[in-house]
Structure formats: C-alpha cells, structure tokens
Amino acid sequence: MTSAARRKLAAPTLAMLPRVSDSLSFLYAEAVRVVQDDTGVCAQVESARGIDRVYIPTASLACMLLGPGTSITQPAMATIARHGTSLVCVGAGGVRSYAGIMPASLTTSWLEKQVRAWADDKTRLEVAVRMYEARFGVASAPAGASLAKLRGLEGQRIKALYRLLTTKHGIKRFKRNYDPESWDDQDPVNKALSAANSCMYGVVHAAILALGCSPALGFVHNGTQMSFVYDVADIYKARVTIPLAFSLHASEDPEREARRRLREDFRAFKLMPQIVADVQALIDPDTGGTHYTDRQSDLVHLWDPHAGALPAGVNYGSETFDFSSE
C-alpha cells in the first residue's frame, strides 16, 4: 500500500467521527514528541535503544493534555482536530490549564442556547440553582435562594466533607491549599486533589468544546475563559476528585496515582456521557440529555428574525436587479 493510500485511509469522514460521550476520557503526555506518520499519530521518545513510539487513539479520545516538555507537529495537530479531539495545554502534573483548541466542525445550536440562558439574569440564576442541585441533590437549594446563599451553603457542605474524609482516613489535620509556587511543599492530599481537579477540568473542557459551547460563559464563575469549565467540574468534585484525593494521603506519587485512578473512575462512573448530558440539562432542561448534536455536513445557515434559519450558499438577490438605478 502506498503512503498516499495510507493517509487517505487514516483521514476521518463525518460518519467516522465518534460522539464525545462515547470517547475515552483523557490522555496526559509529558516530555514526548507527538508526530504524524503514515499510519497515525504517535508519541515518540528518544532513548539509548533508539526511538520508542506509542500510537495514540485520537479518533476515540475526548481530550489530550499536553504537559511540560511536550512538542507536537502541525500534521499531528491537524489530524487530532479532524478527529474532534480537544487539545489542552497544561502545566507540570496537569495542575494548570493554559489553552484549549476547539475542533472547527461544530454546530452552534448549544452555544446559542447557552448564550440565551447566560444573557438573562433570571435564567442565569436558574442554571446556577440547577448546578447546585446537581451537586447536592434535587430540592437541596432553598426556594428563592440567592447566589450568595448558595455559595454559603456550598462552602458549609464542602467543609463538612473535608472533616468527614479527614476522620475516615485518620488524617490529623487537613487544610485546602493550592499554591503553584510552593507545589513541592504541599501534602499528598493537596497534590492529588489539584492534579485530579486539573484533569477533570481538561475533560470537562473537552466535553464543552465538543458540544460547541463557550468555556468562558459561566453561570457561577465569571471573568475567565474557563468560567463554564469550573462551573461544570464543580458538580463532580464532591463525588469523585475529593474522595479520590483523600484516599491517596499516603501515596508516594499522589499526582500520578490521581491521574491513573481518575481514568478508572471515568470508566466506572461513566462520567463522559454524564458530563455531556449534564451540560445539556443545565442549559436547557426541556431538551437536555436527549438531543445531542453531532457534527453535521451541512452546518452553516443564515439567521432571519422572522423566517428562522435559511439555507446558506444561496444568492438571495434579484437576478434582474438593475445596478444602473443606484
């Protein structure tokens, strides 16, 4: 088989693109070179034995986290984008998220729903209440509660969870501390929690991008390009990342162990499809979780306030228009 034929077979079609809810969660890469060859995308490392290669399942991967020492070629990045896999650039151990790359082949239907819900104070508060209830249970938010009230209740619940897990694991004292400048001085629980949360942010970021939503338009968080990512990721911390971090209080390598265990939890809890369904239900509870919008070949239409969506690629000017009359 010629190299041209291999490249043609490796190129995805719209029918081949997987739904993000069915994808593997994330892959963290550090100190590798990501390249495209005739058969796919691989991560390669030079060693005394030569060049070791590991092929990456980009077509079934939701998110790839690129850590320090990682480089990627343009052909590899183009292939990853065509497969709809999000790329997120992160800091050491995945504890900082710097940037994300969104696939271009997306509809704007869920983005438009998000903007409408975000732009009105009443519906924005309604979404915030749904987020709180998604974390702590249906009807857990008092009727008519303000955002300030919800923040206070959330803080009390998280502190109570910290106390419970501290007692359960026999830890003498725990205080949440996230300081990247003194990362090596932190205790294993804080390291594991920061690493697990960062990976959770990466996966949520990928799910939001795959739906075509904006990571910047948050309903509780505000003022950063990751606001909506933080909103959605908070839903799962009390159930997933916080208990996981406390279980690693005696680990010698809590960051690496947290990433490994979190991947297992994503499979066990089926979190990828849950994140997609939750994002949809938060934005539009009437249709959320039941109308996932896959990539389509006919994406572009024209907006009209009266006629609705009109086909694009059509000349709506009169064929007999007389320019001399202008």
UniProtKB/TrEMBL annotation:
Its EC number is 3.1.-.-. One of its GO terms (molecular function) is endonuclease activity. Its cofactor is Mg(2+); Mn(2+). Keywords: Antiviral defense, DNA-binding, Endonuclease, Hydrolase, Magnesium, Manganese, Metal-binding, Nuclease. Mn(2+) binds at E154, H221, D234. Pfam families: Cas_Cas1. It is an enzyme of class 3 (hydrolase). Belongs to the CRISPR-associated endonuclease Cas1 family. Homodimer, forms a heterotetramer with a Cas2 homodimer. CRISPR (clustered regularly interspaced short palindromic repeat), is an adaptive immune system that provides protection against mobile genetic elements (viruses, transposable elements and conjugative plasmids). CRISPR clusters contain spacers, sequences complementary to antecedent mobile elements, and target invading nucleic acids. CRISPR clusters are transcribed and processed into CRISPR RNA (crRNA). Acts as a dsDNA endonuclease. Involved in the integration of spacer DNA into the CRISPR cassette. NCBIfam families: cas1, cas1_ECOLI. This is CRISPR-associated endonuclease Cas1. It comes from Streptosporangium jomthongense.
